[in-house]
Every structure is written in C-alpha cells, then in structure tokens.
Specification:
Number of strands: 10
Order of helices and strands: HHEHEHEHEHHEEHEHEHEHE
Number of helices: 11
Radius of gyration: 18 Å
Strand content: 5-15%
Shape: globular
Bound molecules: S-adenosylmethionine, 6-(5-methyl-2-OXO-imidazolidin-4-yl)-hexanoic acid, iron/sulfur cluster
Structural class: alpha/beta
Length: 326
C-alpha cells in the first residue's frame, strides 16, 4: 500500500479544524466514502496479558507503579489462558486480537511466550496486535517472524505537551520504536489521548506527526481520557464532545486510508456522539466489556447501536476499497 506523498503542516490541519462543522464533516465523510465502506466498522478485542506495576510514569495510567494506584502488579499470563480468551473474542466477531502488557519494554525471558501467543492467535484466523512498550531490533524480528500483524505504540499527544504527561521515556523514543516496527514490516497502530489538559493545537500537532511518518499508521486509535483514581489526571477537565468529533474528522481527512479507531472512553459517550464520530470517519472500535483494565460498553450495547445505525462489523483484512491514488 503506497500513500500519496503529502506533508501536512499545523496550518493546513488548523484550517480544516476551523471549518464550519457541517463543512468539516461533509469533507471527512466524502474522504471516508472514497476509501472505505461507510457502513462497516472493524472490531478489535483487547486483553491485558500483564497488568499493573509498570515502571513508566504516564500520568493518565492506572498501571504505573509511580501513580500510587492500587492496581496490583501481575505476572505475564499463561499462553493457554490467552488462547482461550482469544477464541471467545473470535466467536464474538472480533477480527483483530490486541494483547497489551504494562511494561517499559519486554524482557528477553518473555519473548518465547509472546511468540507462542502470536502464533496461537494467528492460527485462529484473527489478525494479531501487541502493545508491549519499546522494542529493540531483535524483538521486532522475533515478533514479525511469529506472524505479528500490528504493533500498537501511541505517541499520545504533541511533542510539545508530551513532557507534561510522561517523563520516563521521550517522544523521540516512541518515534524510534515506530520506525523499527515499520521497517520490520509490521503494520503500525499509533494514536493518542484527548482530554489530558492539552490545547487544541496539541491535538492537531499530534495528527501532523502521525500523518507525516514515513507512512501514516495503518490504525490510528483516538482515545478519550478515562480519568483514573490516584493518577495526576484524575480530575482532568473532560473534552468538549464537538471538539472531539472535529479531531476525528481531521484525522480522517489527513490519513484517508488509515483505520481511525474510536478507542478508550466510549462508555462515557452517548450514542449520538459515537454516531457523529462514525460519520466523521471513525471505522474501528474496541469491542468487549473491558479494555485493558477500564470499562467499555457491553457487546450487546454496541450491537444495538450498530443495528440502529445500519453498521456491520468489517471483515478481516478489509483493505481500503480503492487502490492508492497518484
Ligand atoms: N505499556 C504499553 C505502552 O504504554 O506502550 C502498552 C499499554 S498502554 C496502556 C496503551 C495506551 O493506552 C497508551 O499509550 C494510552 O494511549 C492508552 N491509555 C492508557 N490509559 C488510558 C486512559 N486512562 N484513558 C485513555 N487512554 C489510555
Ligand atoms: C489504545 O490506543 N488504547 C487501548 C490500546 N491502545 C492498548 C488501551 C486503552 C486503555 C484504557 C485504560 C485501561 O483499560 O486501563
Ligand atoms: Fe506503563 Fe503503558 Fe501505562 Fe505507560 S501507558 S504506565 S507504559 S502500562
């Protein structure tokens, strides 16, 4: 898949963002229709394979050992347990299985189990995704060889705002891991969180960084902060829903062929807000009642919303519907 070469600037992103809402949504929906079936949404399922006790200081996260959170640290779970959960997710309609670990980076001793998880989930016919923190060259090669399809590693916010949120690893570290993953031939899933006290310009700068990567990410998760007790962002001011929808629309226009995922925070969104996000070009969600540790709408609730909107789950590997334009 080759993307038309286009370099985005903050100014160009800002002028989209500032359009009258109806014009912005019309443009986003037009771009969406030119690239995807507008009535299909991809379902990913998450599983926390190692929870809590993380050495990083991400100020939004309940799993950081530095946040005084009560979440106890667990060990990497057994491969068989992952596979039995994955089978249930597949039977419930998930086409991608995303395994997340609360680590700064995986240790050498964990690699054999991680490889077995990827191989086992892949053998069930689902796409595989992992999010394990930073990776070195050897680790990306091992995961690629096992058949890993996607790696999730979020830049989270703008380069400017990033140090306000995380100090234990840099924005540049994140970009290094993303480059390593892409160069190994693993598809990149990268996005961020809205509602951490950042300015609208930070949200746009985050999209500019993502869109200007050597290739835009295949998947772009846009999370709405789920404030977690005992974290520095526990009392963060919620983002205005219209501002949130505008960012989804700008992401769709800037990354026309990426799956834009309406990620964490849906349990605090109305049906109407989610419908607006789908109209603005979001075409992927996390399905199932738990994210990694936080709550998510019940499958039955999502299916009721899909039925009201005439949305169907996307088939696995449903690529954008047209070949890349020149
Ligand atoms: N430890 C790995 C890492 O950070 O790269 C993987 C798991 S981490 C929980 C994955 C992503 O989830 C984070 O980068 C962040 O964007 C998102 N996330 C974590 N806590 C969140 C929260 N409370 N609200 C919204 N998104 C959150
Ligand atoms: C992403 O962008 N969002 C997911 C996934 N990638 C790993 C995680 C959301 C986590 C929400 C908080 C929790 O469940 O602890
Ligand atoms: Fe650790 Fe990931 Fe949470 Fe940061 S977001 S504290 S790296 S689990």
């Amino acid at each position: 898949m080759t993307e038309p070469a286009k370099t985005w600037t903050r100014e160009a992103a800002q002028s989209l963002y500032d359009l009258p809402f109806m014009d912005l949504l019309f443009e986003a929906q037009s771009v969406h229709r030119a690239n995807f079936d507008p009535n299909r949404v991809q379902l990913s399922r998450l599983l926390s394979i190692k929870t809590g006790g993380c050495a990083e200081d991400c100020s939004y996260c309940s799993q950081s050992a530095r946040n005084g959170s009560s979440l106890p640290a667990s060990k990497l779970i057994e491969v068989q347990q992952v596979l039995s959960e994955a089978r249930k997710a597949r039977d419930a309609g998930a086409t991608r299985y995303c395994m997340g670990a609360a680590w700064r980076e995986p240790k050498a001793r964990d690699m054999a189990a991680l490889v077995a998880m990827v191989e086992g989930v892949k053998a069930m016919g689902m796409e595989t995704c992992m999010t394990l923190g930073m990776l070195d060259d050897g680790q990306v090669t091992q995961l690629k060889t096992a058949g890993l399809d996607y790696y999730n590693h979020n830049i989270d916010t703008s380069e400017r705002y990033y140090p306000e949120v995380i100090t234990t690893r840099s924005f540049a570290d994140r970009i290094d891991t993303l480059n390593r993953v892409r160069e190994a031939g693993i598809k990149v899933c990268s996005g961020g969180i809205l509602g951490m006290g950042e300015e609208p310009a930070d949200r746009l700068d985050m999209l500019v960084t993502l869109a200007n990567l050597p290739e835009p990410p295949d998947s772009v998760p846009i999370n709405m902060l789920m404030p977690q007790a005992d974290t520095p962002l526990a009392e963060a001011e919620p983002i205005d829903p219209i501002d949130f929808v505008r960012i989804i629309a700008v992401a769709r226009i800037m990354m026309p062929r990426s799956h834009v995922r309406l990620s964490a925070g849906r349990s605090d969104m109305s049906d109407e807000m989610q419908a607006m996000c789908f109209f603005a070009g979001a075409n992927s969600i996390f399905a199932g009642d738990t994210l990694l540790t936080a709550e998510n709408p019940e499958a039955s609730q999502d299916m009721a919303l899909f039925a009201k909107l005439g949305i169907q789950p996307m088939e696995p590997e449903a690529a954008p519907k047209v070949e890349a334009a020149e």
